[in-house]
Design goal:
Blueprint: H1 5-33, H2 35-59, H3 62-94, H4 100-128, H5 132-135, H6 137-151, H7 166-186, H8 200-220, H9 236-270, H10 278-331, H11 336-342, H12 347-356, H13 361-364, H14 367-372, H15 375-382, H16 386-399
């Protein structure tokens, strides 16, 4: 019924709201009490929420069931926030610097694969019995909980001397919740209008949310241990990366939701698919968006982009890198003849050494030359800073538009 639209809306959006609001706070709690400990708790909370959702869907009806389902989705959101806040951090702690990229990539692939399998499996189960869509995550959650408690160990010591920024957390959580509430009810009908942007409650919520978030920023600039270090946004790469992620989410999230609605509620029924079978067909038809065409174009464009950028870098580094290597090696006492030979290191090898995060000097300099160096010079040449410091100027010059 139209009067129950807000229940459906909260069923869909409540999970995301809770996850967004609690993510940073849970990250700080994890730093204080242990990332693995709270990661395990996240699996357990999410699994309990999933099992309770299945039970409510079987034994309750009416508005009370809807409210219970919404509350349990919020519980799931809390469990998911514990997982999201700690998964990447645990990988960062567990893997050495030169393997973190691979670990993060595998983690992302697993997430995408899980999303794809869940999309199809949810469609299949909705045809069999829609109650099962709440149960499907229980076996996965149980397996994850057991595995986490058996296999995961803390690799870093929790920082127990930290303190919670209570005011910052309060302003951030309440401000974001109120703002999202405003946006949620803005798309609901109000009076004779199709949307609620003219609803005074919506306007108050949005205004109050912005004020509270502004207060959050003011608090973060003054407290000794802020919830979030706003100075990070002074780093151009950090700001640009987060802004691009935010804009990509805006462009992608709503579109995917609209496509699901269009497929499941309009296009498929108009082409002879029963409503009961539409979720499964919609899931199948969404696969190309997730894997066929989107991944093809994304991967193709990435490979093309990599080829273009590597070509530019190799061309420019071929001109500037030899002299830089020669002078840098000669400066620390490497014989001129040896330095001249090493200076012709192919630029692509230098780039991949930088990508893998290791100093290639131990492999490309003769062992006898290294042994003949003074101990201080040998430590410098084989240290972590020598090679990156050496190739940084030609790399940055090659990337600069001025060099062209």
């Amino acid at each position: 019924m139209p009067s129950n639209t807000d229940y459906l809306l909260w069923m869909l959006l409540g999970f995301m709201i809770v996850s967004a609001v609690t993510l940073v706070t849970f990250g700080r709690l994890s730093d204080m009490y242990g990332r693995v400990r709270l990661y395990k708790a996240g699996f357990l909370v999410f699994t309990i929420g999933s099992l309770a959702l299945y039970g409510v869907s079987l034994w309750m009806t009416g508005k009370s069931a809807a409210l219970a389902l919404i509350l349990l989705r919020l519980v799931q959101g809390i469990g998911a926030a514990f997982l999201f806040a700690n998964s990447a951090a645990i990988l960062t702690d567990a893997f050495p610097f030169n393997e973190r990229g691979l670990a993060m990539g595998i983690n992302q692939i697993a997430g995408i694969g899980g999303g794809l399998i869940g999309l199809i499996l949810g469609g299949v189960l909705s045809v069999i019995d829609w109650h099962l869509i709440f149960l499907v995550s229980v076996p996965v959650g149980l397996a994850g909980t057991i595995w986490a408690y058996v296999a995961l160990r803390e690799t870093t010591k929790p920082k127990a001397d930290q303190h919670i920024d209570w005011w910052g957390n309060l302003f951030f959580a309440v401000g974001l919740v109120v703002l999202l509430l405003g946006f949620t009810y803005a798309i609901m009908p109000y009076g004779g209008a199709n949307m609620g942007w003219g609803n005074p409650m919506v306007q108050i919520f949005i205004g109050l949310g912005l004020v509270l978030l502004a207060a959050f920023i003011a608090v973060e600039r003054r407290v000794a241990e802020p919830m979030f270090h706003l100075d990070l946004f002074k780093i151009r790469a950090f700001s640009a990366g987060n802004l691009s992620q935010f804009l990509a989410g805006i462009a992608r999230g709503g579109l995917q939701f609209m496509l699901v609605i269009w497929l499941q509620g309009i296009w498929l029924p108009l082409h002879g698919v029963n409503f009961v079978d539409a979720p499964l067909r919609a899931a199948i038809d969404m696969i190309p968006l997730m894997v066929g065409m989107r991944a093809t174009f994304t991967n193709s464009s990435m490979m093309f982009s990599i080829a273009v950028f590597f070509s530019i870098l190799v061309v420019r580094l071929s001109q500037s890198l030899p002299a830089t290597l020669f002078h840098g090696l000669a400066r620390v006492g490497i014989p001129t003849a040896v330095a001249a030979g090493v200076s012709h290191l192919p630029p692509i090898e230098a780039l991949f050494a930088a990508l893998l995060g290791y100093n290639p000097m131990a492999n490309i300099l003769p062992a006898a030359v290294l042994r003949a160096l003074p101990a201080a010079s040998r430590r410098t040449v084989l240290g972590n800073h020598f090679f990156p410091h050496l190739i940084s100027p030609p790399f940055m010059e090659a990337m600069s538009a001025r060099s062209w």
